[in-house]
Amino acid sequence: MSDLVLSTLDSNNVLHLRLNRPEARNALSRPLISALAGALRAAASDEAVRVVLLSGGDKQFCAGADIKEFVAEGGAVLEDRQRIENWAAIESFPKPMIAAVEGYAFGGGFELALLADIVIAAENARFGFPEINLGLFPGDGGTQRAARTAGKALAMKLILTGEPIDAATALDAGLVTELVPAGDAAVRAGALAALIAAKPPIALRLAKASVLAAFEVPLAAGLLQERQLIARAFATEDRMEGVTAFKEKRPPVFKGR
Ligand code: CO8
Q1: Closest Cα partner for 123 from 180, 173, 175, 186?
Q2: Which of 21, 25, 110, 163 is the pocket-test mutation for ligand 1 (most atoms within 8 Å of CB)?
Q3: Is 122 a catalytic residue?
C-alpha cells in the first residue's frame, strides 16, 4: 500500500484510511485516488473489514482535485480511464463508510465526503466548491450529490459562488451527520464505526444499498428494491441469530452469513 493513504485495521474490524499528502493539503492526485480505490477494493472483499473510517488528519480533510495535474495535463485528466474507474470504485464501495472531517473539505474533498454514508465534522470544518474560481465546477459527482443531499438552493449557492459554508450550516443542510469539538472527529467517528461494525455485515450492505437507491430511482422502484433486498436479509443466518438472541435475551453473535 502506498503511503499516500495510511491504513490500519483496528480490533473492532474498522479499517482506518487516512489521506496522507499534507504537503499538498491532501489534494486528490491520481496516485492518491488510485491508492484510496485500491484500499477500498481490497476492503470490499476482506471479511475482517466491517466498516471504513476515512479521514484526512487533524488540519484538513482534503483540498480537492489536484490542480497541478490539470495545469500539467489539461483535459486529459478528465478522460483518464483509470481515474474514472478508480473514482467509481470509491463511489460504489459497498460497506458502511464514515468520514471524519477536520478543517476544510473543498472541491473533490467535499465530493469525497459526500460519498461517505455518515459524516462526522469538527465544529471548525468548512465545506465548499471553489471550482468556479478556476473556471470549473464540481466534476466528480458534486453537482448531483450536493443537490440531492442539500437541495437546489444551497447546492447552487455553493457551486455558483465558490464560497464555503461552516460546519453548522452543513449540519442544518443534512450534509453532515454530527458535529463535535475540533480534534474529536476521528474519535467520535471511530465510536460510531465500532457500533456499526458489530452489526450483521450482510444486512449492513443491503441496508446501505437500499438507502442509496433513494438517490437513484423513482419511489416505486426504490420500494420494490427495498422489498427484494430485505428478502435477502431475511434469508441470512445472521437474521435467525438476531431473532433467536432476542428470544433468549442474550446479545447476538453475527457471523456475516
Ligand atoms: N491541488 C494541488 N495542490 C494543492 C491544492 C490542490 N487542490 N490545494 C493546495 N495545494 C498545494 C499548494 O499549491 C501548496 O503547494 P506548494 O507548497 O508547492 O506551493 C500547498 O498545497 C499548500 O497550499 P497553501 O499554501 O495554499 O495552504 P493553505 O493552508 O494556506 O490553504 C487551501 C489551503 C485553502 C486549501 C488552499 O490551498 C486552496 O484554496 N487550495 C485550492 C482549493 C481548490 O480550489 N480546490 C478545488 C480543486 S478543483 C476540484 O476539486 C474539482 C475539479 C473538477 C474535477 C474534474 C474531475 C477530473
Answers
A1: 180
A2: 25
A3: no
